[in-house]
Amino acid sequence: xxxxxxxxxxxxxxxLSIQFLVLVNGGKIPAIIVFGDSSVDSGxxxxxxxxARSNFQPYGRDFNGGRPTGRFSNGKITTDFISDAFSLKPxxxxxxxxxxxxxxFATGVTFASAATGYxxxxxxxxxxxxxxKQLEYYKNYQKKLRAYLGDRKAxxxxxxALYLISVGTNDFLENYYAIPGRSSEYTIEEYENFLVGxxxxxxxxxxxxxxxxxxxxGLPPMGCMPxxxxxxxxxxxxxxxxxNNLAADFNGKLNALVIKQNKKxxxxxxxxxxxxxxLLKMIQKPAVYGFEVTAVACCATxxxxxxxxxxxxxxxxxxxxxxxxxxxxxxxxxKTCSIIATYIxxxxxxxxxxx
Length: 355
Hints:
Largest sheet: 5 strands, parallel
Protein name: GDSL esterase/lipase
Pfam families: Lipase_GDSL
Strand content: 5-15%
Radius of gyration: 19 Å
CATH class: Alpha Beta
Keywords: Signal
GO molecular function, one term: hydrolase activity, acting on ester bonds
Number of strands: 5
Strand order of the largest sheet: 2-1-3-4-5
Family: Belongs to the 'GDSL' lipolytic enzyme family.
Helix content: 40-55%
């Protein structure tokens, strides 16, 4: 069935398909382990000294109990829905959250940090957790897991877990194009290749640490984020094509890396998870998915806000986030995340449902 022929109730149908995947999976994947940026951070930044936080209302207003968790969303994020689809926990906890322990992390954990990137210089902008540090946390996690489960069971979790990586947008929008430094060192193509090299090194290190099932996430259509559209006054506040083209080009390079790494490393099963196309469809044909607003975000005035600028004191935040593709100027709503998650599970992660 063509997407354009589907009714606005598509969201309900897709959620039902996630529930079907839960039934057929039967717990084949023992844990989901996450690295990346704000797209997959469920609250690690709450526990480090940075302004890149969202542990206040209205963030989390549609989460369980209506509480802000540190997720840059009105509710759940994509990895939470993926975890649910694999019959695991309904929400993935943050590694630095002291209210959780290794018994919670044994079936799912995120080391992600909002505002980070592949490039260490990106994480330095807002003093967040760089990828290398996330990997160090993961090594500590392995030690705790072995102490908790014993070597044999822990090794089974490590080799059987699904590793999700979602990072890269900040390298371009918050670093290369926003501040002087990298743009004087590299052309944009050279910088893309520099980042792909870091991605290759990171996935190789994960492999050496026992990871076998890896999802390398692509970039969204960055030029369609409200932050970029609001600034595109000369272009009538439409999507910025140059940023979208850059994201598509970079995704092509990440996909090529996945193919190369799978050939290089015995037993590696890496997939490329691409949110670009499905998110662009939601933006271009919102009614198909039950959305009404794509150009601006739900939070505050819907233009430049994210983080502390999206606060409960602002009277402009929308009443129903499900009508909006974007929650703040940079991040999608819970509903958008659920649709992206279902698409990713069906089109990239399905092979792991039966392994």
